[in-house]
Inverse folding.
């Protein structure tokens, strides 16, 4: 029995592979450049990507469970649909898909709407599937750590509704557990959706206060100016992606990302431990310099 992991060289995918290997699973990974993949020696590598139908067919031969993870790119939706079609053609019945929380509500945010479309395809194609819906990644804030420390401002426009931020290490471990659960379950096990959330629903002001405590000096919240946020993002990403991120930030402000009843408790039971906190993240990276 073999589990195919897509996105295996990214932050979450790499950790998923490690957890699966530690738990004794047979793992195959679809990677663009095997020579630089730097994955454990026991992982079988297939060169290609999710638009390469021939590579997908090779990668999916004999696979029992698929972990579908693809990045926010212009053709993300097409990549996912092709991969699922080829998986069904190959006889794969079990899928774990990394979607996003509120994919069905943030309908004007392009990458959220795309992920919801993939969820619908998984459901209608009859896969035995788990759809993981993570909230905002705590680790996203590594990109603005220098701004916080250098300028005394937390610049992410996340608003005052609250985001149940989750550590990517928790996402990866939960994904590995769910992959193994699917691997061992009957093919007709019902589709499930699982919100992946952290233990705190934090506002912009609260995140700034956490950094203030950790750094022992005042850190201000930069406010909810999403137009300025988009312009800043355009310095290092394509305009379409910066606009997508702006739309997401505006939904943070208007809707938040709050857990459902029992979400946190369910994840803690699955992991057998508490979820990681933003406070711990800030302390860890402040001490790292």
């Amino acid at each position: 029995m073999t589990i195919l992991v897509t996105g295996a060289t990214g932050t979450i995918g790499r950790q998923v592979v490690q957890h699966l290997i530690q738990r004794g699973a047979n793992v195959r990974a679809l990677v663009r450049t095997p020579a630089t993949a730097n994955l454990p020696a026991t992982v079988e590598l297939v060169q290609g990507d999710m638009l390469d139908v021939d590579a997908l067919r090779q990668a999916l031969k004999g696979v029992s469970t698929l972990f579908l993870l693809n990045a926010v790119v212009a053709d993300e939706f097409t990549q996912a649909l092709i991969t699922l079609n080829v998986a069904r053609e190959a006889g794969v019945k079990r899928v774990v898909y990394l979607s996003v929380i509120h994919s069905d509500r943030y309908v004007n945010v392009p990458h959220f709407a795309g992920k919801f479309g993939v969820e619908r395809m998984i459901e209608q194609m009859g896969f035995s599937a788990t759809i993981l819906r993570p909230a905002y990644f705590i680790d996203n804030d590594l990109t603005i750590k220098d701004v916080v420390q250098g300028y005394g401002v937390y610049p992410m426009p996340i608003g005052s509704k609250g985001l149940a931020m989750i550590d990517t290490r928790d996402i990866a471990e939960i994904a590995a557990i769910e992959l193994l659960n699917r691997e061992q379950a009957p093919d007709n096990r019902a589709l499930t959706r699982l919100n992946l959330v952290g233990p705190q629903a934090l506002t912009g002001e609260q995140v700034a206060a956490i950094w203030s405590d950790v750094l022992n000096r005042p850190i201000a919240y930069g406010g909810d100016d999403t137009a300025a946020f988009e312009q800043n993002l355009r310095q290092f990403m394509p305009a379409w992606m910066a606009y997508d991120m702006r739309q997401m930030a505006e939904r943070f402000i208007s809707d938040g990302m709050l857990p459902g009843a029992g979400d946190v408790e369910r994840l803690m039971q699955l992991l057998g431990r508490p979820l990681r906190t933003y406070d711990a993240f800030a302390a860890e990276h402040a001490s790292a310099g």
